[in-house]
Write a structure and sequence with these properties.
Elements: H1 2-34, E1 46-51, H2 58-69, E2 81-88, E3 101-107, E4 110-117, E5 125-126
């Protein structure tokens, strides 16, 4: 009986830690996105651990062009482990016929990069700058 109680306490503690940690990240990330004019859901719909390549490969070099447009520079984080959070955008300025998402890349728990995109084959990706949105 004590074994099951101990396991239950461990599971509950782990779950509370994960939910609290995720909530703290969501608050920082949502504030980061608000600084660019974006409104999103309050919780990430995706969370993925990534490693930013060192040196940056062609994909990340192209991605960094998007970052530079928003005043960010992901090349400073080459070789670092990161987490990509994805949020649903609620205030995209026009109907593009599908859900619009905001990605935020965090290193050490701090937002350092991001983009606005759709997931369809004919979709788009642009910088976090609100005025880069299709109008």
């Amino acid at each position: 009986m004590m074994y099951f109680a101990a396991v239950a306490v461990i599971i509950a503690t782990t779950l509370a830690f994960v939910l609290f940690a995720s909530g703290e990240s969501d608050v920082k990330n949502i504030e980061f996105l608000k600084n660019y004019g974006w409104e999103t859901d309050t919780r990430a719909v995706e969370r993925e651990e990534i490693t930013i390549p060192c040196p940056l490969d062609r994909v990340y070099e192209n991605y960094n062009e998007i970052q530079l447009r928003a005043g960010l520079d992901i090349s400073r984080y080459a070789g670092k482990d990161a987490v990509r959070f994805t949020y649903i955008v609620k205030n995209y300025p026009c109907d593009v016929g599908e859900e619009v998402r905001a990605n935020v890349i965090c290193v050490g728990g701090e937002p350092v990069a991001g983009d606005i995109m759709t997931v369809s084959v004919n979709g788009f990706m642009h910088s976090l700058r609100f005025d880069d949105a299709k109008k």
